[in-house]
Amino acid sequence: MKYKVILFDVDDTLLDFPETERHALHNAFVQFGMPTGYNDYLASYKEISNGLWRDLENKMITLSELAVDRFRQLFALHNIKVDAQQFSDVYLENLGKEVHLIEGAVQVCENLQDCKLGIITNGYTKVQQSRIGNSPLCNFFDHIIISEEVGHQKPAREIFDYAFEKFGITDKSSVLMVGDSLTSDMRGGEDYGIDTCWYNPSLKENRADVKPTYEVESLLQILEIVEVTKEKVASF
Fold first, then answer.
1. Which H helix or E strand runs over 21?
2. CATH 1.10.150.240: which residues of the chain?
3. CATH 3.40.50.1000 residue ranges in the chain?
């Protein structure tokens, strides 16, 4: 095989985050008896949250600040009188209960068992452990590395240092990073000196200053990159 270790992102690579987010947020609104018009709030929330995640990648805020600030800003924008900290706690609890798989996620992991598989994900330890643990993917991975535990998030090299130490890796050419984000997954992998595979199912244009080694629109295409022979593929 071309690679011995495959490192996967989670959100929008193996698990469908927009669907997870939509359900968790809607349930939190219902639990707090908040006003109707959820779809209007969702658009505002996504814009605010995405901006704060970019700030996190650039080390401008912390993960704990992001958790509450996104709701504080949302509620201020819409004049909603709800405690942002309490709402955040309920939302994160809901988030951990949601499992929505990306098409091909189980198949690709099943057919990469000759490799060591790992996860490197930006997020909250309790939430990500719950989502992965409740999914059919939970037993495929040798190590699950979550940014909150490490104290660094992609694209910082420290989280890749941590992964290499966990796996006992010395040969960077034996490692492939797979993810959907150009700014965290691909940037982090490229800066660290490992090959990268951009999962791009919607065929977005690459406008970032980063050049993935590979680009796929289906997770099953990774099997061709890793050179899994069709004789070994269970469901190709």
1. helix 17-31
2. 17-97
3. 5-15+101-226
Q: Minimal CA–CA distance to 146: which of 63, 29, 236, 85?
A: 63
**Per residue in 173-219, pLDDT tens?**
999 999 999 999 999 999 999 999 999 999 999 999 999 999 999 99
CB–CB of 223/190 below 8 Å?
A: no
At residue 42, the pLDDT reads 86
Cα–Cα distance, 197 to 181 (Å, whole number): 10
Please give the C-alpha separations between residue 134 and each of 105, 147, 155, 207, in angstroms, as whole numbers.
14, 19, 27, 35
pLDDT at 103 exceeding the cut of 60: yes
Annotation marks residue 9 as catalytic: yes
pLDDT for 236 beyond 60: no
Beta carbons of 164 and 182 less than 8 angstroms apart: no
Token pair, residue 171, equals 């040969």
For 205, phi then psi, to 5°, come to: -75, 140
Is residue 35's pLDDT more than 90? no
Matching CATH number, 17-97, of 1.10.150.240, 1.10.510.10, 3.30.429.10, 2.60.450.10: 1.10.150.240
Q: Is the confidence at residue 25, as pLDDT, over 50?
A: yes
Token pair belonging to 80: 């909603």
Give the model's confidence band at 1: pLDDT under 50 very low, under 70 low, under 90 confident, else very high: confident
Three-state SS at 196: strand
**Which candidate in 9, 11, 69, 180 is catalytic?**
9
Domain range 5-15+101-226, CATH architecture:
3-Layer(aba) Sandwich (3.40)
